[in-house]
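Data availability (excerpt). The following record was deposited with the supplementary files.
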Amino acid sequence: MSLATTLDTARASLMASGIQSSVISRNISAASQAGYSRKTALVETYPGAGVYVAAIQRAASAGLFTNVLTSTSAAARQTATYAGLQQIAASTVDDPELNQSPTAQLNALKEALHQYATAPDNMTLARAAVSSAKDMATALNQATKTVQATREGADADMATSVANINQLLTQFATVNTAVVKGTIAGDDVTDYLDQRDSIISQLSQELGISVSIRGNGDAALYTDSGIALFDKQARTVSFAPTTAYTPGTTGNAVIIDGVAVTGASSVMPLKSGKIAGLADLRDNATVTYQNQLDEIARGLIATFAESDQSAVPALPNVPGLFTYPGAPAIPASATVSVGLAGTITVAASVDPASGGNVNLLRDGAISGNPAYNYNTTGNAGFSTRLQQLVDNMSVAQPFDVTAQGKPNGSIIEFAASSASWIETQRKTTSDNVQYQNTLLDRTTSALSNVSGVNMDDEMAFMLQVERTYSASSKLISTVDNMLNSLLAAVGAN
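Predicted structure:
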């Protein structure tokens, strides 16, 4: 090998070592940066003329990255649903000390009526029974408000999520273009690839997503149901929020590229992601629980309804202690009367706060029609009607099967089945959240092991590069001394 060739080889090695050192420093400085992947200088050999840095590569695993995206979306869906269920359960079930759940209020009402039945002439017990009935109605009213507030919150969060998606897609378009142009030009695009993966990861929190990489590093995005989200350009994601919810309100669907991806009419619904969880909470779980509350209210009206006490009964049953805006009709049996739990009240005629007479609870004719008077003799010790009401609370009646509670049982049993349903939903979702978060942690850790920066490895590699740099420098110095000696010898001659 000639001295000139040796010098060129050593110089090329120095240049390569300098680039390697720069890449290592870049890794070390960004080691704690979220989404950063380790970079490596790819060194190749010139035929007979040393080495050179052919490209800058980044550590990555498409398979592990896909697993992280899947786990992120699944965890986001379960978390969004659980937050809403927790809010509802905490307000309507988790109150062992306050005793404000429908089941607790029903048992309290039954006990108050039982106490009143033992002393029908005791006004204090009469007022206590009416007060307990009012607490029961208030509990259903407040539970309805909680459920609808949860639906409103879910709807608002869906709007926020859609806004985030559109913003991220705009960012994605810019970075994806930079990746494609840089790849074509042969530039280092590894930082752009990191940015693009970070944007994709953020998108996966909002909705289930899959990625397709094409020529020149171009990426296309699709929802987990197969709808194009980005293909050469961002697709339109739209959503019209509903600002106020009442029982029976149907929220709008999220639309991607003209296709509904949430709601009952969706043919390609999202399977995971925050939006899928919020939509399920808004349109399914809360609606079912509201139906159960409405069935409890309907069952109460039926349980406490008054019947015609005439010798030859001809009049239909009418609401008694509990009434609603549709009185004097009784709500249809075993059929959800949408929103009834939010409008049920204690009849004003028996409520002392409204100038009513508490004795009507004992005597009947709460509706104002004498035909429904049970205490025809005006006996102050009359307890038959009160005991009948106590017994009615234990009598089985049919409930709408779509409410997913106990289809046939007493009002108290149905309320208990409703509490069990919401608790089961919450517990199941909580378990799913824990599982998905654990899976996400493990997949993220696995990806980090592949693409993350290990400081020990970087420092060891830095020492190796420094040795190579030192050896190349020494070789150049040696060649320089040899050339100087050669020139000196030539000059002497």
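Summary of structural features: The chain has a mean pLDDT of 89.
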